[in-house]
Amino acid sequence: MSGPATPQALHDMLRKIQEPKGYFFNKDMDMTMPLLESLLVNKQRYGYMACPCRLALGEFEKDRDIVCPCVYREDDVKEYGACFCGLYVSQAWNDDEIPHDIVPERRPPEKLFG
Amino acid sequence: MSDDSNEVKLFALSTCVHCKNTKQYLEEHGVDYKCVFVDQLEGDERKAVLEEIRAHNPKLSFPTLVCGNGRVIVGFHKEDIKEALQL
User: Fold this and answer.
1) What is this model's ipTM?
2) ∠ CA(A73), CA(A75), CA(A76), 5° rounding?
3) Which residue, A44, A111, A40, is CA-closest to A71?
């Protein structure tokens, strides 16, 4: 498997790419690290980093919308300050300037059946 | 066939941290529950379980906690779980 092998290496690599875009890792490392570890598990399992908190089909074309960062992240972070799984958040979210609400699922349920 | 309708059932994903936190919370409070890791199911078995979840949570998101008393909690809502299961 090419690419970062550990959650910490993945964290360090992604952070440089995502922060300039306004997406920060959840300051709660008890959330961020397990989620990054699960991304590596899914990369191993499916060949791509499917969202750890969504049910992947294991077919890239059908899972493309939930390959991290998912297509729903932008709207979720805009509306709730966090993505569905809580890996990426806004600066305001990390600074506790906005409430930490649980993000509802935007993904159409039919996608789970392929 | 035994009637398991009042059983506490957690539909989860093995990779989901919210599911992990929900499991931990239930275990910390000694709740007797059944956990189904849907990402570890395949084919018709997975489809059947998805249909079962859909009856409780049309969005098919995880975790979905079916409390056995008619209450369904989607997401790791600690206070709702506490109240629904009277913990």
Assistant:
1) 0.91
2) 60
3) A111
pLDDT tens digits, residue range B20-77? 999 999 999 999 999 999 999 999 999 999 999 999 999 999 999 999 888 999 999 9
Residue A31: φ, ψ to 5°: -100, -50
Tokens 């980093």 -> residue: A49
The answer to whether the CB atoms of A35 and B17 lie below 8 A apart is yes
> Are the Cβ atoms of B39 and A56 closer than 8 angstroms?
yes
Q: How many CB atoms lie within 10 A of CB A52?
A: 30
Predicted local distance difference test score (pLDDT) of residue A4: 84
Predicted confidence (pLDDT) per residue in A13-23, tens digit: 999 999 999 99
Nearest-angstrom CA–CA distance, B73 and B81? 7
Cα–Cα distance between A32 and A95 in angstroms, integer? 16
Q: Which residue of B has its CA nearest to A109?
A: B59
CB A70 within 8 A of CB A84: yes
